[in-house]
Design goal:
The chain is α/β, with parallel strands linked by helices. Helices cover about 45% and strands about 15% of the residues. Bound molecules: uridine-5'-diphosphate-xylopyranose.
Length: about 425
C-alpha cells in the first residue's frame, strides 16, 4: 500500500520505517526541512535502537522517502497517518494546532479517496473535529474516512513494540476504513481490536494513565514499607503474581517522567474536567509522582545533615534507560533541588550528557561512574542503566570520600552493598 506519514518525530519515523519494513511504499513528511535533509541521507535526528539501520535499508530499497511538502505525500498516498506533535499548553491541555493545520492541508490537496488516520495522542473527539475540518475545506466532494490508531511505543524499544505489539487498536466509522487498516496490520499477528473512533482515542489516554497509576500506587506502598521496615520489592512480587494485577510497572523509584506520561495525564485530567467527570484519582497519581522526587531529596538531606558544600555523584539523567531523552526526566527535579541547596554535583549518564548539560548548565559532567564517585560524599542513582548494574563497587568505595549510596531505582541487593561497606538507602526497603 502507499502510505504517507505526516510528522517525522519519534512516532512518525518508527511508524514509517516499520511500514516500509512490512513491504509498503512510505513517504514521510516534516515541515523542518533541515531534518528532512538529514533523513534523506539516512540520519535520524533521534536515538532509537535499530531505527537508523532500518531507515538506511529502506531508503536504499526505495520503499521509504522523505519530503517537506505535505501535498506530495497526500497526492501519492491513499492512507495518511497523522503523527504530528500535540504538546501541552500552559493549562495542561493538548495543543492541537498542528493536527488542525494538517487536516486542512490534506483537505485542500486530496483529489480522490483518502483514509486519514490519527496516530498522535489526542483528546477524545479529535477525530470528529478532523472530519469536520476536512469536510469544510475539501475542494470538491472528494470521499474520505477518518480513523484513530493509537500507538503504544516505548522509547528505547519502539521498533519491537511496533512489530510485536500486545494489540493493535483501530477506531473506525466505516467498513472500508476497517478493512484497509486490518489488511495493513494483518502481518503483525497481534489481536486487532476494532472500535468506534472515540473509544480508540480514549484507549490511548486510559492506557497511559493506568500505567502511571500503577507506578504511583507502588510508590505510595513504598512509603508505607519505609515507615514500617517492610520491603517494597517483595510486596511488588507478592501482588504482581496475581494475574489480575501483573508485576510490570510496579517498580518503585523516584517516579515516572518522559514526554508521554506527565503530559498525557495532564491532558486527560483537562478532558475529564471539561466533561464534568471527577478525576481526583488522576490528580493523585500526578501528586504522588511529584512528592516522590521531593521525598528522595529529603532522604538525602536526612542522612547527610547539611547539604551545602557537600559533593554528590549522580548516576543516570535520562528519564529511563536506553534513551538520551531528558524531557520531564525525574532526575531534573532531584538535581535542581540539590543544586539549589549548594551541593556540588558530579554528573554522569551513558547517553544523555549533551542534552543534560544544555538544560542544566550547572554541575561537573564526567565521563564514567568512577569519575562521578571521585571525592564524593555520596552517590545517587537516578536512572537504571544496565551499565550501573555492572559497576565495581570495591573500586567506587575507594574513590569516594564517604561510602553512602542513595539508590533511586532499587537496582542493588541491600545486603551486598552493606557487606561492601556502603551505607545504602533505596526506595521502600
Ligand atoms: C510510555 C508508554 O509505555 C507507551 O506505551 C506510550 O506509547 C508512551 O509512553 P515511555 O514514555 O517511552 O512509554 O516509557 P515507559 O517505559 O513507559 O516509562 C515511563 C516512565 O515510567 C519512566 O520514567 C520510567 O522510569 C518510569 N517507570 C516505569 C517507573 O518508575 N516504574 C515502572 O515500573 C515503570
Amino acid at each position: 500500500m502507499k502510505i504517507g506519514i505526516i510528522g517525522s518525530g519519534h512516532v512518525g519515523l518508527v511508524t514509517g520505517a516499520c511500514f516500509a519494513h512490512l513491504g509498503h511504499e512510505v513517504i514521510c513528511v516534516d515541515q523542518d526541512s533541515r531534518k528532512i535533509a538529514l533523513l534523506k541521507k539516512g540520519k535520524p535526528p533521534i536515538y532509537e535502537p535499530g531505527l537508523r539501520e532500518m531507515i538506511q535499508t529502506h531508503l536504499r530499497e526505495r520503499r521509504l522517502s522523505f519530503t517537506s511538502e505535505i501535498a506530495t505525500a497526500v497526492r501519492r498516498s491513499e492512507i495518511l497517518f497523522v503523527c504530528v506533535g500535540t504538546p501541552p499548553k500552559d493549562n495542561g491541555e493538548a495543543d492541537l494546532t498542528a493536527v488542525e493545520n494538517v487536516s486542512r492541508e490534506i483537505a485542500r490537496t486530496m483529489t480522490s479517496y483518502r483514509l486519514v488516520v490519527d496516530k498522535s495522542t489526542v483528546p477524545v473527539e479529535t477525530g470528529e473535529w478532523v472530519r469536520r475540518t476536512i469536510e469544510a475545506n475539501r475542494r470538491r466532494r472528494v470521499d474520505f474516512d477518518v480513523a484513530s490508531n493509537p500507538e503504544f511505543l516505548r522509547e528505547g524499544s519502539a521498533i519491537r513494540d511496533f512489530l510485536y505489539p500486545d494489540r493493535v487498536v483501530i477506531g473506525v466509522a466505516s467498513k472500508r476504513a476497517e478493512k484497509t487498516l486490518k489488511d495493513l496490520y494483518r502481518p503483525l499477528t497481534a489481536p486487532i481490536l476494532v472500535t468506534d473512533i472515540k473509544s480508540a482515542e480514549l484507549i490511548k489516554h486510559a492506557s497511559n494513565s493506568f500505567l502511571a497509576a500503577k507506578i504511583s500506587f507502588i510508590n505510595m506502598i513504598a512509603r508505607m514499607c519505609e515507615a514500617v521496615g517492610a520491603d517494597v520489592e517483595r510486596v511488588a512480587e507478592g501482588i504482581g503474581l496475581d494475574k489480575r494485577i501483573g508485576r510490570s510497572f510496579l517498580n518503585a523509584g523516584i517516579g515516572f517522567g518522559g514526554f508521554c506520561f506527565p503530559k498525557d495525564l495532564g491532558a486527560f485530567i483537562r478532558i475529564g474536567e471539561r466533561l464534568g467527570v471527577d478525576v481526583t484519582l488522576l490528580r493523585s497519581v500526578l501528586e504522588i509522582n511529584d512528592t516522590q522526587k521531593k521525598a528522595f531529596v529529603e532522604k538525602i538531606r536526612k542522612q547527610m545533615w547539611n547539604l551545602k558544600g557537600k559533593t554528590i555523584g549522580i548516576l543516570g539523567l535520562a528519564f529511563k534507560p536506553d534513551t538520551d531523552d531528558m524531557r520531564f526526566a525525574p532526575s531534573l527535579d532531584v538535581v535542581r533541588a540539590l543544586l539549589a541547596e549548594g551541593v556540588s554535583l558530579r554528573l554522569y549518564d551513558p547517553q544523555a550528557m549533551g542534552e543534560a548539560r544544555r538544560i542544566l548548565k550547572k554541575g561537573t559532567f564526567v565521563r564514567s561512574p568512577y569519575e562521578a564517585a571521585r571525592g564524593a560524599d555520596a552517590l545517587a542513582v537516578l536512572t537504571e542503566w544496565q551499565e550501573f548494574i555492572e559497576i565495581d563497587f570495591k573500586r567506587i568505595r575507594k574513590l569516594m570520600h564517604r561510602p553512602i549510596l542513595f539508590d533511586g531505582r532499587n537496582m542493588y541487593d541491600p545486603e551486598r552493598l552493606k557487606k561492601l561497606g556502603f551505607q545504602y538507602y533505596a526506595i521502600g526497603r
